[in-house]
User: What shape does this take?
Amino acid sequence: MTNEQLDQLTINTIRTLSMDAVQQAKFRTSGGAHWRLAPVAYTVWQHFLRFDPDDPIWPNRDRFVLSNGHASMLLYSLLQPVAA
Assistant: This one.
């Protein structure tokens, strides 16, 4: 699998997690914000944020603030732990 294919698979997984959560919660929204913002959120999270999950109180870490309520499931999808 190439890096581009892995990136696309990850973006599609984020989309799927977000849309499934919206459906399970029986929200009236279609989840369109999650669908469109997944590539942007992935790029920011993967290439620009500085963070260390092993040290959550690291003083120089970046914070990701998402103020769009319709895309809150997108943030939750990004925070899902990675299976080992």
